[in-house]
Amino acid sequence: MTSLSRRGFFGSSAGLLLASRTMTAAQNVPVAVTKGESRRANITAALDLIDKEITAKLRNRKVVVIKPNCVSTNKQLAATHADALHGILDYLEKRWKGPVVIAESSAGFSQDAFENFKYAEAAREHPKLKPQLVCLNEEGLFDTIHLLNGDLHIQPARIARRLVDPDAFVISSCMLKTHNTVIATLNIKNMCLGAPLRSKRNETPRWNDKRIYHGGIRQTHYDILLTAQKLCPNWGIGVIDGFEGMEGNGPSQGTPVNSRIAIASTDMVAADRIGVEAMGINPEWVGYLTYCDKAGVGVYDRAKIDVRGESVESVKKTYRMHGDIDRELQWMGPLTELPPKLG
Fold first, then answer.
1. Most-buried pick from 7, 89, 124, 181 (CB within 10 A)?
2. What is the torsion angle, in degrees rounded to the nearest 10, for the CA atoms of residue 69, residue 301, residue 27 and residue 94?
3. Which is it for strands 305-309 and 261-265: parallel, antiparallel or unpaired?
4. 216: left (phi over 0), alpha (psi -120 to 50) or beta
5. How far apart are CA 190 and CA 186, in angstroms?
């Protein structure tokens, strides 16, 4: 694909993004890959492999925010497992005094997910960290971001304020899953589509700013990039639970794949690159990740990533894609209907 000018494409943030990219490129980014028969142990072991990088970023932060993926509030295969949270909390207990917030903005009602997936029980097992469960929709605190809607008009969206708090160290806890719009959903998708808010349980009229992101396959990839640019200063660790991934009609209607792995990195884009490879997906297919690489949000270039632990080749399984894969991939080709050229 043709590379676009940073000045023309990314506007006034270009200097910061270029500086970030330069620092990232100075040394290869480590991504940990572990495999075993315990979801919880896999995740803790992956975090241990990048402990030096984590502790350097964790220093001087005031709160840890763990962002699970609860795209479904009642289907466990589609949502972050409590044992994945245990694995993260087990790692933190030796290095962090608290507080920890487990926060989600589900398309449904996050409290239902917390109950159905036993997150409260997981929190109670780690009293030293003082974990709290927070539904970001019910909390209702937000900052505003401007996106492109389906008509290519600028439209504001409300995103959870906790995820842009400069004192927060944000951890993504997601899974290996195929997706019905953007090929695969991993850390970046978890963070960027979990950030926009929806109405509270008893609020009327109903509203859902997540819908703005689904204006079209091109806008979706670009809007994820815009959101990643706003959120990434607070990103601490990307954790992918691949103990049981989802193939086929993800992110909620697919079927399980027993990959039995965990992936972790302090660079969420780099973690997602290894996750995509572990699913046997062509990395060029995932537009929002290639955009994040071009914008300096993280590293997607495989030559700049060092894998620690298991090799990607030894854990790779080829996941069956969503039934709409051919239409999803149309973001890569030319526009078939162009606006009039004037002037």
1. 89
2. 20
3. unpaired
4. left
5. 6
State the average pLDDT over residues 296-301: 98
Q: What is the DSSP letter of 125?
A: T
Residues in the chain: 343
Would you call the peptide bond into 251 cis, given omega within 30 degrees of 0 as the criterion?
Answer: yes
Taking a C-beta distance cutoff of 8 angstroms, is the pair 172, 187 a contact? yes
Q: What is the pLDDT of residues 72-118, one digit of tens each?
A: 999 999 999 999 999 999 999 999 998 999 999 998 999 999 999 99
E-only strand ranges, the chain: 29-35, 63-68, 100-104, 131-135, 142-148, 154-160, 168-178, 184-185, 235-247, 255-257, 261-265, 305-309
Predicted confidence band of residue 26 (pLDDT cuts 50, 70, 90): low
- Please state, as a whole number, how many other Cβ atoms lie within 10 Å of the Cβ of residue 63: 16
Query: In CATH, which of 3.40.50.11440, 3.40.630.10, 3.30.70.20, 1.10.10.60 is domain 27-329?
Result: 3.40.50.11440
Mind listing the pLDDT tens digit for each residue in 236-253?
A: 999 999 999 999 999 999
Task: Report in angstroms the alpha-carbon separations of 295 from 15, 45, 62, 268, 306.
Answer: 10, 31, 28, 14, 21
